[in-house]
Amino acid sequence: MTTEQTPPVPGPKPLRADARRNRARLLEVAEAVFAEQGTGASTEEVARRANVGIATVFRHFPTKEALLEAVLIRRLEQLAEEGRRLLAESGPTEALFALFDLIVEASPVKNAFAAALADAGVDVGAAAAEAGHALHAVLSELLSGAQRAGAVRKDLEVPELIAILVGTARMLEHLDGHPASAARARAVVRDGLRPPVAG
Amino acid sequence: MTTEQTPPVPGPKPLRADARRNRARLLEVAEAVFAEQGTGASTEEVARRANVGIATVFRHFPTKEALLEAVLIRRLEQLAEEGRRLLAESGPTEALFALFDLIVEASPVKNAFAAALADAGVDVGAAAAEAGHALHAVLSELLSGAQRAGAVRKDLEVPELIAILVGTARMLEHLDGHPASAARARAVVRDGLRPPVAG
User: Fold this and answer.
1) Do B166 and A171 count as a contact with CB atoms less than 8 A apart?
2) What is the pLDDT of residues A33-67, one digit of tens each?
């Protein structure tokens, strides 16, 4: 809720409030268009759907890749925000499992964006690093909280939690169109995250 | 242990015993060469390491793709055989978990072969279908046995078991070089396959 921000490193000059709103709206429209038509959708289509001229899109996003990258970063930021909101609302365990599901569901979209950017020679690793760190921090906080509550196995660390997210997304991709099988595969992972039964 | 085989569909004429042995040996050498050097390794290198002329390799495998495909099919067949051997030796539950690990470990190699064949325009789905079916049948038998023994959740079916194999391979690929994390990720899946604790 800070109203003033001093950029820690020299960067583009801050956008005025209306320019910020326009940028946010363009990202929202772009996300919808890419979700419907794939990452091959044109910048022109985004402009048309946002009811602005193509010049307006290019003012905010000089290239199609800049637009794809901004949408990807916005998704990561939204997941981190959602994690924090869930934590405040319902405690770490419920929040962790809910965020787990959200990330797994967002993963095919994220992968499609990452693939499109990699094809264009953009290093997504670097570009999305900051947003990725924020999400990483939220996951780490939820994991510790759920472990303290005794709801998740104590030995689990963030790197394998992320690998399990990636692997679960792959499972569900494999079971696309088979919701009953997908639900059972999710249950396997979800139950496996719980502390093992002594014996 | 059948010594006579009647091919169910018209196929290439049966190889003489020594030709069969040569073919098997070439496949073994080819697998080692591809494992060491990747699927980009040349047929010449396979011939050199097998101590035969290139013409001998081409007599058995007219193209590099035919060789890659035969190695992939042999891996699938070996996994199915190994599953049957494990079942006979140690019962369905141990056999299922052991075969699970073997398939997950074989997966990166299998994927590299499948990718190389897809790049060459070969439809691996069709090519390896028969070997895939045999492995599928063994998995199904081990799964039912382990479920009857009460060691695996009753609701699990083969499609999601295969998806879980694919997803676990992806997890471990993500954790390559981090064996402690990989062991914990494996434990999550393994425990998740067990029947859920009532509560």
Assistant:
1) yes
2) 998 898 889 999 999 999 999 999 999 999 998 99
Residue B172: φ, ψ to 5°: -70, -30
- Tens digits of residue pLDDT in A2-21: 445 555 555 566 778 888 88
**Contact flag B167-A171 (C-beta cutoff 8 Å):** yes
DSSP line for B141-198: HHHHHHHHTT-S-TT--HHHHHHHHHHHHHHHHHTTT-HHHHHHHHHHHHHHHSPPPP
Residues of B with CB under 8 A from a CB of A: 153, 155-157, 159-160, 162-164, 166-172, 174-175, 178, 181-182, 184-185, 187-194, 196-197
Instruction: Tell me which chain B residue has its CA closest to the CA of residue A169.
Output: B167
Give the integer Cα–Cα distance in Å for A151 and A94: 9
For residue A1, the model assigns a pLDDT of 45
Domains and CATH numbers, chain B: 15-62 (1.10.10.60), 64-193 (1.10.357.10)
